[in-house]
Write a structure and sequence with these properties.
The complex is a heterodimer of chains A (125) and B (229).
Chain A (H helix, E strand, L loop, with lengths): L1 H43 L3 H17 L1 H7 L2 H20 L5 H18 L3 H4 L1
Helix pairs in contact in A: 1-2, 1-5, 2-4, 4-5
Chain B lengths: L1 H24 L9 H19 L6 H23 L1 H8 L3 E5 L2 E2 L1 H6 L4 H10 L8 E6 L5 E5 L22 E5 L2 E2 L1 H6 L4 H10 L8 E6 L5 E5 L5
Antiparallel strand pairs in B: 1-2, 1-3, 3-4, 5-6, 5-7, 7-8
Helix pairs in contact in B: 1-2, 1-3, 2-3, 3-4
The chains are: A mainly alpha (125), B alpha+beta (229).
Chain lengths: 125, 229
């Protein structure tokens, strides 16, 4: 009976862990996405310094959660996000425009992670 | 270099986890596996291999499914101990393939068991004459249990009216030079008795013995260690 109780407790812990993972990822991606959206609107209005600051904040939030993302997310996806951040930073440094596709790419990679980790028929099947 | 270190650490973690899980799943896993247990073992092996082959995959992606399978198996095993219906549902029920020398073809067909397989199994158990088989039961683990007709069964001492001494299962008391105190205590013997037995065989210490077994009747089997080459 002890083994069954242990198994049930382990299963419950794993389910709780999965729920925690979903909420953690939601809040992380939401916070990063929020900063990127702010950065994009600043860049679109020509406030490149503000855009860089907002993007830096977003990147800091993302890198500070490194311990979490490296354990729970696939590393190729993390690499894709890191590359997209670098590309966008370079574009904003140049202040010559053409940053829209870089924002789109970064947001797309974040959305991919968000979509994959959520309980949807598509992600399950 | 770092990649190699990651693979080594991951391998060690997964190895310890799998050993622990297989130990907790019980000894039956090692030999007589039910179909579901075989599927479980195959899946666990496959799941463990992925994070080792690709370090881009988080180890949790392998560990979590393994732990979920383990939990489910433990729960199902526990519940099936309590419920006969669940046990039948999950593991099936034994099928009688031969009854009083007659092959039950329906059961053979239902279990996808070929005549060749049946004859091979009978031969491996020393049976060549189907008429002598009282019953052959296909167990849920895929093995066949045979019961031969009473006239074909070996004669027992009881049937012959003989009294035989129950010598019990011999236990190893010295194994590769080491005294197994637990087995000695189980037989109700002391180390002093053991030393005395060794001396009477011309052996100075347990270190010279490769294997020594003793049964309930204190019958001894002794095998000395080979001389070092």
């Amino acid at each position: 009976m002890k083994r069954e109780l242990f198994a049930a407790a382990l299963l419950a812990a794993l389910v709780l862990g999965a729920v925690w993972n979903l909420t953690k990822l939601d809040s992380l991606v939401g916070a990063v996405r929020g900063e990127i959206v702010v950065s994009r609107s600043c860049a679109e209005s020509g406030q490149f310094e503000q855009a860089r600051i907002a993007l830096k904040r977003g990147r800091e939030i993302w890198t500070q959660a490194g311990a979490y993302t490296e354990i729970f997310l696939r590393h190729p996806e993390l690499d894709a996000i890191a590359d997209a951040f670098c590309e966008l930073e370079e574009r904003l440094e140049e202040e010559t425009g053409g940053f829209a596709p870089c924002y789109a790419r970064l947001l797309y990679h974040l959305d991919c992670i968000d979509r994959m980790e959520h309980l949807r028929p598509g992600s399950i099947l | 270099m770092i990649e190699l270190a990651i693979v080594i650490i991951r391998t060690l973690i997964l190895y310890v986890t799998l050993m622990l899980i297989m130990r907790l799943l019980g000894k039956r896993q090692m030999g007589e596996m039910e179909l579901s247990e075989f599927v479980l073992a195959s899946m666990i092996a496959d799941l463990a291999a992925h994070p080792l082959q690709d370090i881009g995959i988080p180890m949790l992606n392998g560990l979590v499914p393994i732990l979920i399978l383990f939990s489910c198996e433990m729960l199902i095993a526990g519940l099936s101990l309590k419920s006969i219906r669940l046990r039948e549902l999950l593991f099936g029920r034994p099928s009688v393939l031969i009854r009083k020398g007659e092959i039950d073809q329906k059961e053979m067909h239902a279990n996808r068991f070929t005549l060749d397989e049946l004859l091979q199994e009978l031969r491996s158990q020393g049976v060549t004459d189907l008429r002598s088989v009282e019953s052959a039961i296909l167990e849920t683990n895929g093995r066949i249990s045979l019961l031969q007709e009473a006239s074909q069964s070996p004669v027992t001492p009881e049937q012959l009216g003989l009294s035989v001494q129950d010598r019990g299962q011999p236990l190893a008391v010295i194994c590769d030079g080491r005294i197994l105190k637990r087995n000695l205590a189980q037989l109700g013997l002391s180390e002093a008795w053991l030393r005395q037995q060794l001396q009477s065989s011309g052996i100075r210490s347990a270190g010279e013995v490769f294997l020594m077994t003793v049964d309930k009747a204190k019958e001894i089997y002794l095998c000395r260690k080979d001389e070092p080459r």
